[in-house]
Amino acid sequence: MNIFPFNLEPSLCFYVVVYVLTLVLHAIFMTYVLAGSIYLAWASMFPGKTAIVRARSPLAEVLRDWMPFALSAAITAGVAPLLFVQIIYRQEFYTSNLLLGWRWMMVVPVLIVGFYLLYVVKSKLISQWSLAARGAVTVGVAGCFLFVAFCWTANHLLGIDAARWPDVYATGAVVSSVVSLASRLMMWVSGAFPVMCMLALWQLVYYRRRATDVASVDRQHSGPQFVSEIRVLARMGLGGLALSLMFATGYAFTLDAQIRGEFISDGIVWAPFLVVGGVFQATGWFRLLKSEGDSFAIRVLISVGCLSMLVAVGFLREMLRISKVDLTVVNASVKAAAGVGGFELFVGFTILNIGLMAYCIRLVNRRTTGE
Length: 371
Hints:
By secondary structure, this protein is an all-alpha fold. The chain has one domain. It has helices at about 10-45, 60-75, 80-90, 90-100, 100-105, 105-120, 130-160, 165-170, 180-210, 225-250, 255-265, 270-290, 295-320, 325-340, 345-370. Helix 1 runs antiparallel to helix 2 (about 60-75), helix 1 (about 10-45) crosses helix 13 (about 295-320) and helix 6 runs antiparallel to helix 7 (about 130-160). The chain is globular, with a radius of gyration of 21 Å.
């Protein structure tokens, strides 16, 4: 196994680096939707006994208001890594798709259902429904995104286990190890919470300072209620961080002993990013638990920690994948793709899309603030 991104052909190294960086951008929005939908389902099913029920708390209001946009952003940001993964892991990716069969075919319809249900959750009409009905809708939303997460996890595990392809084709059993699939899936699900909490923290502080009526968020953003919401985020952030590390350790032990040894020894180059990111996040969340508010420095500390860990995990993930492919075939495929050109067009449209997204956010802010 090579120490990624070193010892790779320049063209392959370039494609994998761009793939990981675009995947991290997609993961930021994706984790917001995944963890946010799970939190909303829990808040709807267990509203609590406080003055403001969890389903109507500032955090829940912010998540409901922004999750449709976040899902759109996740899908848009997912186009680039989806294109790169087909170039780098052509055989592995397409074979896994075919072996998953109807499950893979259901990903797009399930995403569409989840997208429209997010607007149902966001509507004022749902507040008039019974607790059971609201809970069913929010659980359905979370179920949609958990199903998509399962499909991508199964796809990845199939892609790095080519020896099983004939048996999977013959038997249709796409899951060889429930422990491996569950540990990897739960690693990503639990790891989604610190990222979602980091983004929601910035949003809550932003709305509090704007002192405007955005979905009744700011009227509840003052005093003890705001401090309470910040502590909820801190607890979820710490819990998600701890669980993700635990499940990651469990997943590592499901790997082949030789691969695990090479993975650990070669992956040491990314250990500082994981350690620093984890320490930054844990320190920031602990300080929020003990404080009566927040500070800009704490938010930056948590954000740097989240991004550091996402980038490190992204490169470690590709180290394992690269070790499972035929580099001779992949290098030939990548060189052919690099010779086609069009990178300048890709960069141009990336910048254009970022600008359009920023403009749309600005329009929404102007509409809600009456500017």
